[in-house]
Write a sequence for this structure.
């Protein structure tokens, strides 16, 4: 009897066609968009919950940041999963949008939409805006090459931890940084107000009765996330947070 | 009532096509939209001009032939109503009406307002049926089906295949049409047998025919003359997921 590793057993039980169907099948593609979207929105929720610790002062967010970094390899696993989800979500999103645009060679002279929302119609643009902002955001707060004078890596707090609190507070005290941030969060909110209900529909987690309710819940959840994120620069600019 | 019409005229698939202006005079509010076009055509014929070609058959809202986008809305402004059942009383004297064919790459224009919808037929041919053994008629009620399931199946079976969902979809997707057939058959024991294969081949057929991808705008549900619900698309998605998770999955061999 040959011993098979768990991985081999897993692979033997898989059908190679499954990889193909996710790309070649219209519903398969939707499932890629929705599951990667689910991963990304989970991050958006956890990120907000973590960052809210800013409101409890320097000790809150600096402890939180230290805890995150102490996770070591686990943090990198999550980062890699997020990067993969983001890459798939973007590649599929762009390709599907291009494909959808070419599905109608002649445009209507008069075209009325009865239920399509602004958020739904501009998914690609809010998505690209978020991607653009994400690059800037990572360079600012993760790599810390934008506004390096406030870099948490270089400035330690009284307990010798990277001073994330001061980095965030000093950065958001610049109007431009805050305005750019709020604009980006508006894009996130719009993107999610269509995306959340769309994900629920694609994964079939509704029925005839709950489908219209899910549309409303999705939009409401998007609004809550938007307000949650905007509370951070609002708190800093209004001097509720910081000295 | 008198109306100004802008009607899409196109000689054939190769022709570029254009919107031409016509005047419809002495239209009775009791006329159907198609009768109004008949009147316009009679006038055109009397003048020795080419009448406007449009699709129609039963004129009682069940055949799915009429295919006109009226003022930017497939089947016009009246909810759950086909063009043939739309009456002129829903318009006002002096109105300007734009009439265009369904627009989608998968629906090439044959002439004027007539489009070729055989791409929908090919989706059905791929798997939108239940294979049955011919033979004696089975006893009534030999196969029991729960009432709730029958109701859902019948609601889905209401689709007349007119293609308005494709015409209305910002992406030109045929997801509602396919979902209606997948749901209709998946809800019944006779159709359940081939449900896994069906959902795969029908969704693959959509892609082959050049329809767009569904991104849940729900325009299709808003304009469907038969009230087909997007909850059927969620049902199709569940059917696909069930097949995808199971063995052997969704084969793309077809």
């Amino acid at each position: 009897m040959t011993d098979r590793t768990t991985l081999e057993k897993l692979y033997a039980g898989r059908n190679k066609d499954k990889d193909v169907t996710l790309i070649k099948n219209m519903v398969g593609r939707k499932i890629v968009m929705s599951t990667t979207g689910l991963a990304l929105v989970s991050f958006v929720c956890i990120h907000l919950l973590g960052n809210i610790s800013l409101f409890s002062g320097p000790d809150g967010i600096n402890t939180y940041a230290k805890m995150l970094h102490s996770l070591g390899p686990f943090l990198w696993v999550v980062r890699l999963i997020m990067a993969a989800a983001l890459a798939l979500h973007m590649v599929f999103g762009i390709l599907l949008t291009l494909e959808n645009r070419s599905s109608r060679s002649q445009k209507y002279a008069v075209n009325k939409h009865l239920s399509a929302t602004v958020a739904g119609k501009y998914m690609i643009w809010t998505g690209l805006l978020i991607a653009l902002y994400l690059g800037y955001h990572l360079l600012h707060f993760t790599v810390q090459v934008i506004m390096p004078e406030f870099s948490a890596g270089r400035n330690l707090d009284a307990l010798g931890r990277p001073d994330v609190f001061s980095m965030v507070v000093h950065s958001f005290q610049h109007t431009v940084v805050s305005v750019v941030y709020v604009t980006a969060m508006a894009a996130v909110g719009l993107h999610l107000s269509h995306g959340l209900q769309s994900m629920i529909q694609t994964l079939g987690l509704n029925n005839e009765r709950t489908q219209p309710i899910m549309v409303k819940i999705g939009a409401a959840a998007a609004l809550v996330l938007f307000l949650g994120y905007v509370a951070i620069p609002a708190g800093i600019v209004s001097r509720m947070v910081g000295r | 009532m008198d109306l100004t019409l802008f009607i899409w005229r196109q000689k054939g698939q190769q022709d570029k096509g254009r919107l031409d202006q016509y005047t419809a005079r002495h239209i009775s509010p009791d006329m159907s939209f198609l009768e109004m076009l008949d009147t316009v055509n009679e006038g055109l014929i009397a003048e020795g001009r080419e009448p406007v070609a449009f699709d129609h058959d039963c004129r009682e809202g069940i055949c799915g032939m009429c295919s006109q986008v009226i003022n930017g809305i497939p089947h016009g402004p009246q909810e759950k109503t086909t063009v043939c059942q739309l009456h002129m009383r829903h318009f006002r004297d002096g109105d300007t009406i734009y009439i265009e064919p369904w627009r989608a790459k998968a629906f090439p224009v044959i002439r004027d307002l007539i489009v070729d919808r055989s791409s929908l037929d090919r989706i059905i041919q791929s798997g939108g049926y239940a294979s049955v053994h011919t033979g004696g008629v089975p006893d009534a009620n030999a196969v029991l089906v729960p009432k709730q399931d029958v109701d859902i199946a019948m609601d889905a079976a209401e689709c007349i295949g007119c293609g308005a969902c494709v015409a209305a979809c910002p992406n030109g997707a045929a997801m509602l049409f396919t979902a209606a057939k997948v749901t209709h058959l998946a809800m019944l024991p006779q159709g359940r047998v081939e449900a896994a294969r069906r959902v795969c081949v029908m969704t693959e057929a959509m892609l082959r025919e050049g329809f767009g991808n569904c991104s849940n705008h729900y325009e299709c549900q808003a304009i469907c003359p038969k009230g087909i619900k997007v909850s059927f698309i969620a049902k199709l998605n569940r059917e696909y997921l069930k097949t995808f998770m199971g063995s052997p999955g969704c084969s793309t061999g077809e």
Notes: Chain A has a mean pLDDT of 91.
